[in-house]
Amino acid sequence: NAGVMQNPRHLVRRRGQEARLRCSPMKGHSHVYWYRQLPEEGLKFMVYLQKENIIDESGMPKERFSAEFPKEGPSILRIQQVVRGDSAAYFCASSQKHGAHQPQHFGDGTRLSIL
Amino acid sequence: DQQVKQNSPSLSVQEGRISILNCDYTNSMFDYFLWYKKYPAEGPTFLISISSIKDKNEDGRFTVFLNKSAKHLSLHIVPSQPGDSAVYFCAAAYLNNDMRFGAGTRLTVKP
Lengths: 115, 111
Prior knowledge:
Helix content of chain B: under 10%
Number of strands of chain A: 11
Order of helices and strands of chain B: EEEEEEEEEEE
Distance between the termini of chain B: 38 Å
Strand content of chain A: over 45%
Oligomer: heterodimer
Shape of chain A: globular
Radius of gyration of chain A: 13 Å
Number of helices of chain B: 0
Shape of chain B: globular
Helix content of chain A: under 10%
Structural class of chain B: mainly beta
Largest sheet of chain A: 7 strands, mixed
Largest interface: A-B, 29 and 28 residues
Structural class of chain A: mainly beta
């Protein structure tokens, strides 16, 4: 399967715990984007990364959220000290090049539930 | 701020008929517009796009129309098929690929 792979598909955490979401982009793609979808809402941009660099994190909350895309391995979205409001579907997308005309290819998402 | 709006949360169409999904945006600086289709428990799948310098793009049964003066775009599916039943997201992208999504329209195509 050469698509964007996200794991886990479902993640349950208690308030105050940490959540780590992983994303392996499509082969040959070096641009990764993270989105969050709240119930009954569209996808909201969080962060855009290129290998080892955060390019745009304007959509990511300033506290408790962080993202990385190391030289080797998947991109990680980390949420520390989770709260109920973090419950959402988190989607990762990747593209081969960067630009408005480059469609982003999405993974199937990680559904995060906070107890 | 909701820069991309899909005002119809749902649409029901008979098989074989035309489906028209609408989308409005507020920022004239968007460079590209895209439509994504999403099935339950899956990620969005790119469907079709249009550059801001064009007013129409067609791909098989799917056609996207852009009216820049009205800041409005629409996706036409003809003929509609039951397999088209999904949630359709409109997205608008800046040159830097920063995308804004609408809330989606759930299309149901009845056999």
